[in-house]
Amino acid sequence: MTSFNEWIDKIKRKDGDIDYIEYNEFSNVKTVGKGAFGIVESADWKSYEIKAALKTLISNPTIDDYDLNNFIKELESLKKVSFHPNVIGFYGITKEPLSNKYIMVLEYANQGNLREYLKNNFKFLKWSDKIQMALDIARGLKCLHFKNIIHRDLHAKNILVNNNRLMITDFGTSKQLSESTSNSANSTANGLGMPEYNEPQLFKIINYKKDKKSDIFSLGVLLWEISSGRPPFPGYPRNVLGSHISYHNLRENPIYGNPQEYQQLYQECWDSEPKLRPDIEKVYETLSQLSQISLRESSHKPNGFTEEALKNWWSNNIKSNNIRSRNNNNISYLEKVEMQLWMNLFLKKI
Question: Which parts of the sequence belong to the Protein kinase domain (predicted)?
Answer without folding.
Answer: 26-290
